[in-house]
Design goal:
Number of domains: 2
Organism: Sphingomonas naphthae
Shape: globular
CATH topology of the largest domain: Rossmann fold
Number of helices: 15
InterPro entries: AB_hydrolase_fold (IPR029058), Peptidase_S10 (IPR001563)
Protein name: Peptidase S10
Structural class: alpha/beta
Largest sheet: 10 strands, mixed
CATH superfamily of the largest domain: Alpha/Beta hydrolase fold, catalytic domain
Keywords: Signal
Radius of gyration: 25 Å
Oligomer: single chain
Order of helices and strands: HEEEEHEEEEHEHEHHHHHEEHHHEHHEH
Pfam families: Peptidase_S10
Length: 521
């Protein structure tokens, strides 16, 4: 859920035919023409030539499991167009393709971060690309000390990788008459990514390759709708990877009990990590399983009763919650059993004058006693400098990509950033004001019964709690055969699971086995 504040990307020159090359007075509109009509005629008179797609291709190698893999990296842009074939945006990507592989049988995975508004620098430089930023765990970084190097846990031995930045973020920009707002919305963003993936696939002759989409955070909400949109446009996926998921905003709003049900198991896992629970079990998995059962049973029943809950039941449930999440019974009762994220972050380590991270509950920061809300997220501020410094050095020195543009850490840097949250799920007659793209993913899985979904989760992710995704999938009402196509994996980390170096090898093993299963279909 992160939104972070090089040959020029002047890819679309707007020509005004018939005008001399010097400034002219603006012609006055005839009195009988409205302002809107004049503006439309001016737009019609504007000719936008095709935008060039730029790229820099370089050769590299990386060693994985003792085997040296030679590959090429392509840093470049694809141009997406409207229905009249006019260029509307230049979307930046970095693709890694294994040398000597047969493109028709070689899987290709399209990867993106979330935000909404974030570039894909985090997954690109932190997870399964052939290079990776080195960060400690979990500590505040020093950007000048941490660098990047070969990634032995890259997925390049299993799949080619294409990391894509959304319009407005990174080096991706609107073209011609298009503005950022034309792409800044749930459905607008999905349309842009669908066009970019279709364009890249056609340009690189990869239609016969197995194809996977891999999104993190808001990128998982994008993936649900994107899976359906790609299917609807003729590109069938083989797999969808969901990392730190939030696919349904509708049931995760303050005032709705499902918000608190989603959070409680992650609160318990975080309290377990900080040793704030009595008789702490040695292993986290059975402990979380016990908390899940309590959450979906006694806790859900208690919340459903609202203020009509019996005092004895209130005491009993609050006491059991205290044993799971490490907060005093009195605090839990005063909150009417409904523990908000900010309350938990401030109260868990209050006696140590520490607040905990939202993106990763393992991280701690100094508490500001003056306010009720933690004034910064230590899990967010801890890594930003290292990633941005490493990417800017890597893209120019190693990949040879140069542009006069700055790499936007957030689409909001273009100005006027206001996300349109309306979404029209497949099969629905009207748009939802709070999106739920699990409905779209369910539709894609019904149309494409072989589509496999892998959910990767961090135990200590408080921004997109794992139990929320579990709820969303259980309410997709899939047929038994399709339910078996959904699998889950959990790791001792937070929202950006890959920040914990200890998770990389096991997560890579899980992903490798999953990619092998795609081939065995």
């Amino acid at each position: 859920m992160r939104a972070r504040p090089l040959l020029s990307l002047l890819l679309a020159a707007v020509a005004l035919p018939g005008l001399p090359a010097f400034a002219q007075d603006k012609p006055k509109a005839p009195a009988d023409k409205t302002k809107e009509k004049v503006e439309k005629e001016a737009a019609d008179a504007t000719v936008t030539p095709p935008a060039d797609e730029k790229q820099s291709v370089t050769a590299h190698s990386v060693t994985v499991n003792g085997q040296k893999l030679a590959y090429h990296a392509t840093a470049g842009t694809v141009t997406i167009r409207d229905n009249e074939a006019r260029p509307t945006a230049s979307m930046f990507y970095v693709a890694y393709t294994l040398d000597g592989a047969a493109p028709g049988k070689r899987p290709v995975t399209f990867v993106y971060n979330g935000g909404p508004g974030s570039p894909t620098v985090w997954l690109h430089m932190g997870s399964f690309g052939p290079v990776r930023v080195s960060t400690d765990n979990p500590e505040r970084d020093q950007a000048t000390r941490y660098g990047f190097g070969p990634n032995p846990d890259t997925l390049l031995d299993k799949t080619d990788l294409v990391f894509i930045d959304m319009v407005g973020a990174g080096y991706s920009r609107p073209l011609g008459a298009a503005k950022g707002k034309d792409f800044w919305g749930v459905d607008e963003d999905v349309d842009a990514f669908a066009k970019a993936i279709l364009r890249w696939t056609t340009k690189n002759d990869r239609w016969s390759s197995p194809k996977v989409i891999f999104g993190e955070s808001y990128g998982t909400l994008r993936s649900g709708a994107l899976a359906y949109q790609l299917e609807d446009r003729g590109l069938s996926l083989d797999g969808v990877v969901l990392l730190s998921s939030i696919m349904n905003y509708g049931v995760r709003q303050p005032g709705y009990d499902n918000l608190y049900l989603s959070l409680l198991p992650s609160f318990a896992a975080t309290a377990w990590y900080h040793n704030r629970i009595p008789n702490r079990p040695a292993a986290i998995e059975p402990f979380v399983a016990e908390v899940r059962a309590f959450t979906d049973g006694a806790y859900a029943a208690a919340l459903a009763k609202g203020h009509d809950i019996d005092p004895a039941e209130l005491d009993r449930v609050a006491t059991q919650m205290a044993g799971y999440i490490g907060l005093p019974v009195g605090v839990i009762k005063r909150a009417n059993l409904r523990i908000t994220l900010n309350l938990f972050r401030r109260e868990l380590l209050r006696d140590q004058n520490r607040t905990i991270g939202r993106l990763d509950g393992r991280y701690t920061g100094i508490m500001d006693e003056a306010g009720d809300i933690p004034n910064y997220d230590p899990s967010s501020t801890a890594v930003g400098g290292a990633y941005m410094a490493s990417f800017n050095a890597y893209i120019t020195r190693e990949l040879g990509y140069r542009t006069d543009l700055s790499y936007n850490q957030s689409a909001s840097e273009l100005g006027g950033f206001d996300w349109n949250w309306k979404h029209r799920p497949q099969g629905e007659g009207r748009p939802l004001t709070t999106p739920n793209t699990a409905l779209d993913l369910a539709g894609a899985m019904r149309i494409n019964p072989g589509l496999k979904v892998l959910s990767l989760n961090g135990w200590f992710d408080l921004a997109t709690p794992f139990h929320g995704l579990e709820y969303d999938v259980s309410h997709m009402f899939l047929e038994p055969a399709q339910r078996r196509n959904v699998s889950y994996r959990y790791y001792p980390s937070g929202h950006m699971v890959y920040l914990n170096p200890e998770t990389m090898a096991p997560m890579k093993r899980d992903l490798a086995a999953w990619y092998d299963s795609l081939r065995s279909r």
